[in-house]
Amino acid sequence: MTAVSQEEEQAIVETVQTIVQKHGASLEELIPILNDVNRDLGYLPAAALAEISRLLHVPKSQLFAVSSFYSMLSTKPRGRHIIQFCESAPCHVVGGRQVWETLCANLQLGANETSPDGKWTLATTSCLGLCSVGPVLVIDDDVYGNVRPEQIPDILARYS
Amino acid sequence: MKTVRSMILVSSDPLSMERGAQQVFESLEQEIRAFGLQDEISIKMVGDVGRHDAVPMVIVYPEAILYGPLQPSDAHRLVEEHLYKGRVAEELLAPVRELTGKLAWLSARRGTLPAEKRVILARAGIIDPESIEEYIIHEGYAALGKALTEMKPAEVIDLIKKSGLRGRGGAGFPTGTKWGFVAGTPADKKYVICNADESEPGTFKDRVIIEGDPYSLIESMTIAGYAVGADEGYIYVRGEYTLAQARLHHAILEAREMGFLGKNIFGTDFNFDIHIHSGAGAYICGEETALIESIEGKTGQPRSRPPFPTTHGLWGKPTLVNNVETLVNIPPIVREGAEWYRSLGTPSSPGTKVYTIMGNVNKTGVIEVPMGITLREVIAIYAQGMKPGSTFKLAQTGGSSGSVIPASLQDTPMDFDSFSKAGVALGSGALLICDEETCVIDLAKVLLNFFRKESCGKCSPCRIGTQRSYEILDAISRGQGKLEDLDTLIHLADSMYAISNCGLGQTAGTPVRDILKYFRAEVEAHIRLGVCPAGVCKMHVPVQ
Q1: Chain A residue at shortest CA distance from B198
Q2: Which of A124, A152, B294, B524 has the CB geometry, 3.0–4.6 Å to A87, for a possible disulfide?
Q3: Chain B residue with minimal CA distance to A87?
Q4: Into which CATH architecture does domain A81-157 fall?
Q5: Which among B201, B239, B456 has CB closest to A127?
Q6: Is A93 in Cβ contact with B359 (below 8 Å)?
Q7: Cβ of A72 and B300 within 8 Å?
Q8: DSSP 3-state assignment of B501?
């Protein structure tokens, strides 16, 4: 895990406390809580999991199991912008592979890698439910459909 | 596009042409001009209309009246009576016959083409999905009112059983029977869960339903709660569907304000409320016991069954788990009755089905049609044909656990029983239409890649079988395959089917089995000849 300073840790704990308060400290709210913390902090730092464990009385082992099981949760820091590329069959048969190869070449990244400058994380994902406009990629909350390889540089240039 | 009051379709399949369809068409055109109707009426030759016993056949819209077999000399009478005077030319009508397939839906929806039969999507795109008032105006909450004030819970269940509704999540289990199991289990607390964790690749019907008509799902769940004796419901929505979640949140708040959720609904002593639970990105949570584990704050690993959720579900209580599309069929059935519902679709699979269409076709999207139409009809009519220059090679149904349907099966009616007789599966209603540039090895590789990543890892047949199958397919795609690999693939598929704990592992081998059944020559070409006939696989790349 990445080391965090005391102030950072304090901020993390406060974020967690606000979110837990919003949902209520019950086990059935665990995944919604983790989702929100992950969204606010970009990932689930050890300090956040420790605080959730304390508030919900859930063993840390279960928290780590859950955090590493679901693809929308990450226990490692990720890039400022997260690219989700759909690698399921509907996108694949309408030209997804060429888009993927162009993405990798443009970013100099492979699947599920984060760029050294911390700007990009290139993640593959299963179907996003936007199959009628494949190939599909999602950057942060922006959805791009009917993507052609030659559009990739333009799309990437929109993010700083 | 110009607006016309009537549209005339003339069949022009080979048999029709042989019997003079061209002359019928020309005579009709002539007569239409003679009556001065050419600006009000359009006439087209449309190929095969799906019925050959009375060709040349003419279909007049918007009334969807079928005439046939017609002679050129009948044209005058037809145009004068029907189009000029507005009366049906009775003596020219096609013989009445039980309508199946294409004609069933052609006549089902009068006045529009392509002819969809929208029952559960009737309001999607018509009402404001954030206005409960609009929902109520469009028959909303009539069914719940009827169920609560006029029917006993057991009567609701009987009605659903009589309707023949089957689960739309993929397995096709009779819905009324499932409800009966939950209702018949005595307990102090029961739950209704709506499975909206739609993650089957290619499937987005539930998203369309929720985003377009969230209230219908809430009404349906409330009826389900009343029928099985539950007072609490959960909607498990996949994490990626943020708009669907927002719409549901809004709809639940409005329903509570209106008194459709909460205590003493419709002035009865029935109480019911609904929570939304967001998933976090795991295909396996679409499996009902994994979904329950996930709500309980655990990793989504399917439980061993039995016991089934109908007796031991969420927090160990009897729980009804139904798919979104299954549930939203309930209000129309309660309103219109089981007999009406059975008039749609086929005897073994009544009702409509929502399909999502994608792939190498001209038009992609979502349609709702009666059960039993064929793939050929879907491609020709709704998808408006294959993309220019491409021919149909195969379709993949129901997402990754669906079957690979070769062109030879494209006339099989799409309902649960006809498909299962043909040895394929309808799945969740995704139709991925592929052209001849699709390589079956490449396709199977993508599908198995999905399964190996989404396998929860709990049981070894699935965890190892999906990984190993993927590796073999990958080797074949690089020109490194051996013929005995194909036996191994079949063995893996059989083992996964026989001993996996849940549906993911059991169906993971289906694509492999299908391509070996229908496209074995193409697979063997990769191995024996070292070529990929579709030109997709980069052969002779060393395995890294």
Answers
A1: A129
A2: A124
A3: B446
A4: 3-Layer(aba) Sandwich (3.40)
A5: B201
A6: yes
A7: no
A8: coil
Q: What angle do CA B75, B76, B77 make, to 5 degrees?
A: 95
Task: List, for residues A146-157, the tens digit of each pLDDT value.
Answer: 899 999 999 999
* A11-70 residues touching B, CB cutoff 8 A: 27-32, 34-35, 58, 62, 65-66, 69-70
**Is residue A87 within 8 angstroms of chain B, CB to CB?**
yes
* Domains of chain B, start order: 6-97 (3.40.30.10), 132-336 (3.40.50.11540), 348-435 (3.10.20.600), 440-529 (1.20.1440.230)
Closest A-chain CA to B394: A93
Coil vs helix vs strand at B141: coil
- For the stretch B483-513, pLDDT in tens is 999 999 999 999 999 999 998 999 999 999 9
- Residue B473, pLDDT score: 97
The reported pLDDT for the residue numbered B50 is: 60
A113–B contact, CB cutoff 8 A: no
Residues B522 and B534: beta-carbon distance below 8 Å = yes
pLDDT tens digits, one per residue of B32-62: 999 999 888 888 887 766 667 788 989 887 7
User: What is residue B493's three-state secondary structure?
Assistant: helix
- Nearest-by-CA chain B residue for A143: B240
Low-confidence ranges of chain B (pLDDT < 50): 1, 98-114
pLDDT band, residue A3 (cuts 50/70/90): low
Region label for B277, one of left (φ > 0), alpha (ψ between -120 and 50) or beta (otherwise): beta
Task: Yes or no: say if B314 and B296 are a contact pair by the CB < 8 Å rule.
Answer: yes
Q: What angle do CA B413, B206, A39 make, to 5 degrees?
A: 145
Mutation for testing the B interface, residue in A19, A27, A30, A31 having most B CBs under 10 Å: A31
Sequence-distant (≥ 6) Cβ neighbours of residue B18 within 8 angstroms:
none
Structural tokens at position B388: 């220019």
Confidence (pTM): 0.82
Sheet hosting strand B191-196, strand order edge to edge: B273-278, B232-237, B191-196, B319-323
Mean per-residue pLDDT of chain A: 92
Residues of B in contact with A128 (CB under 8 A): 240
Quick one: DSSP state of residue B179? H
Q: Show me where the domains of chain A are located.
A: 6-69, 81-157
- Tell whether B184 lies on the interface with A, counting CB pairs under 8 A: no
